[in-house]
Amino acid sequence: MNGNLFLLFLLVFVHHSFWAQEDLFAELESEAPQEELLLPSRMVFTQKFLWGEKGLFRKTGISPLNIEQREKELKLRRSMLKWHQIIGYLTLAGMVTQGFLGGKLYNNWERGLYRTHKTVGNITTLSYFTGAGLSLFSPPPLTNKKYKGLNSIKAHKYLASIHFSAMVATGIYKNRNKKIHKYSAYTAVGSFAAAVLVFKF
Amino acid sequence: MFFLSFLSVGLVAQSTSWKTAKESSVISYSAAHILHPWKGINKNILGIAVVDSSNESIEKMAILVYVKDFDSNNSNRDAHALEVVEALQFPQVKFFSEKISINNEQVNLEGTLDFHGEKAPLEIVGKANWFENKLKLSGNFVIQPTKFKVELPTFMMIPINDKLEFDFELTFEDEKK
User: Fold this and answer.
1) Which H/E stretch holds residue A85?
2) Confidence (pTM)
3) pLDDT at position A128, please?
4) Which of A117, A141, A167, B109 is the most exposed place for a label (fewest CB within 10 A)?
5) Beta partners for B166?
6) Does pLDDT of A91 surpass 90?
7) In this predicted structure, what is the pLDDT of residue A147?
8) From the candidates A12, A18, A28, A47, which should be mutated to test the interface with B, based on the most B CB atoms within 10 A?
9) Cross-strand bridge partners of residue B125
10) Kind and range of the H or E element at A22?
11) ipTM field
């Protein structure tokens, strides 16, 4: 009789343990085995050059491609993009100031004003390219899904290629052609402001 | 002996595991920043309900989703979300409950939510509809990401609201039938 009771206890125990939490989750995990993807399928060429599977940092051993390192890279990425945002707002403020100073200079040239315009211009250019570098050279995200149609990040990127070219032109033509300098500067400010505005979290 | 074995087998036989039907199961979250709200959808739901169909009750339920499967229709936002929830270290979100009561159409689930490596009790009130070899559950619940030690992402230096509202629609099917 004791043996029978033991058997009953065993069967009931087996029944309960069969549906144990760990077993249920193990069954679910086995249903959909996950591929461990450390890098996105698409990334900006500058990121690929540094952080791609065969990128410079991988080949030199500075940043080997593994989970621990990618976790550190993603923290670095967050920090770099936070600064990209902050510097972006400061750059926009600098650009607006430059537009104001530049407009005044075209109407009434003054040495003092010209010097201020030049100094603010240099600071704005420096902050612009620092901000751009923080985005272009940041470690890649974990995912980079592709969507059809225009969305905020696509618009931000298209506008970035416009203001980047305009900023380069503004610098090149500052002492060569005032008219081109002026219009490229306006293009840079307009497209930069639009890039800030279209960006959605 | 025969009687006892029969009784035990009977106990086992009453409960069967029902799995979520992928094509009709979805979990979504709604989040908001001062500038705008958004929604992320996950259609890759893995779930098991241990069901006693003889009295239309659920003994246990386990739900597993991967954070990478939430899609908010904005790649940058999803990438950012994966960073703040540390998806490489904590890729899964799990919910387990063995305190489930159903009264008419109302279902109460008391369980544990395992998210970002932190476990917290979670109580959900939803709706249950039984069909032949099929059970549909729907409802919603709210969590605070900071309670799960998730650092709130910021935009324009302003963090998102510390509130994620989840909606779910799950269909469980008896695979053996």
Assistant:
1) helix A67-107
2) 0.82
3) 96
4) A117
5) B29, B141
6) yes
7) 84
8) A28
9) B108, B140
10) helix A21-31
11) 0.82
d(CA B4, CA B10): 10
Grouped pLDDT means (10 residues each) for chain B, 177 residues? 45 77 96 94 96 88 96 91 95 96 93 97 96 93 97 89 97 84
Residue A14 predicted with pLDDT over 70: no
Return residues 55-84 of B near A (CB < 8 Å). Answer: 59-60, 62, 64, 66, 68, 71, 73-80, 82-84
Contacts of B85 (CB under 8 A, 6+ apart): B67, B115, B116, B150
- 3-state secondary structure at position B72: coil
The rounded distance, in Å, linking the Cα atoms of B13 and B8 is 9
Q: Over 50: is that where the pLDDT of A94 sits?
A: yes
Of the candidates B8, B17, B91, the beta carbon closest to that of A34 is on B91
Residues from chain A contacting residue B11 (CB–CB below 8 Å)? 11-12, 15
Cα three-residue angle A142-A88-A124, rounded to 5 degrees:
140
Residue from B75, B92, B116 whose CB has the most chain A CBs within 10 Å, to mutate:
B75
- Evaluate whether B155 touches B33 at the Cβ level (below 8 Å): yes
Nearest Cα residue to A135 out of A164, A167, A100:
A164
